[in-house]
């Protein structure tokens, strides 16, 4: 399918939550292979039924996040992809710090199932993040550095959620504590009396309340500028750029 057509499936105009979907990956491909077949056998039974007062966030590594989004779509949730890393620009994908092609391929696999899911226009969202977006990677010269972060502006504000009747946010992730960048989002919601919960992603029990601790730089004027320092923005949108070779110029003369 044309990438624009695939994006329209994942970010349909009838869903108000589509305004937060990131077009970054879709804009980098002309076509995305859409294959037939069953969605990955993800056990989502521990996750509550869709409710107007609850928003989900899936923060799991790579294709797992897409698979969870597709599986939750079968339950009536509206998946909203927030992946904001660019693909490698036409060279060996092994040079990319984060290989986004498996995520694109999984989006393609999930498109047919998503298209046939009959999700209600007012279905609650499940925002999809790659938990490996900025983990333990050190760029070297010649690599394509596409590490990325999320910011409060990437999500609905607390006021927006409250105006839609949202009172709970459930985060499906591997650990109890949210990643630092996501904590900046969650704490803003928590301060507005929106309850934050964590859902064990392996079906190990019901969602449980957590208290989001104050992350470094919270609500400071220069947080965003400092957070992206060392990351590389791409001119087409999102994050991604070649790490240059160190300058060979020196001081002084011979």
Question: What does the model show?
Answer:
The protein has 254 residues and is an alpha/beta fold. It has one domain. The protein has helices spanning 3-10, 24-27, 63-73, 101-115, 158-163, 180-191, 223-227, and strands at residues 54-60, 78-81, 125-130, 144-145, 168-173, 195-200, 208-209, 241-242. The protein is globular, with a radius of gyration of 19 Å. Mean pLDDT is 90; it is low at 248-254. The termini are far apart. The protein is built from seven helices and eight strands; from the N terminus they run ααβαβαββαβαββαβ. Strands 2-3-1-5-6-7 form a six-stranded mixed beta sheet.
Name the features.
254 residues, alpha/beta, six-stranded mixed beta sheet, two-stranded antiparallel ribbon, 7 helices, disordered C terminus
Beta percentage is 5-15%
Structural class: alpha/beta
Total beta strand runs = 8
The rough form would be described as: globular
Strand order of the largest sheet: 2-3-1-5-6-7
Spatial separation of the terminal alpha carbons: 60 Å
> How is the biggest beta sheet arranged?
6 strands, mixed
Helical fraction equals: 10-25%
Query: Mean of residue pLDDT?
Result: 90
Short description:
The chain is 24% helix and 14% strand. It is α/β, with parallel strands linked by helices. It has a six-stranded mixed β-sheet with strand order 2-3-1-5-6-7.
Describe the SSE topology.
Layout: H1 3-10, H2 24-27, E1 54-60, H3 63-73, E2 78-81, H4 101-115, E3 125-130, E4 144-145, H5 158-163, E5 168-173, H6 180-191, E6 195-200, E7 208-209, H7 223-227, E8 241-242
Parallel strand pairs: 1-3, 1-5, 2-3, 5-6
Antiparallel strand pairs: 4-8, 6-7
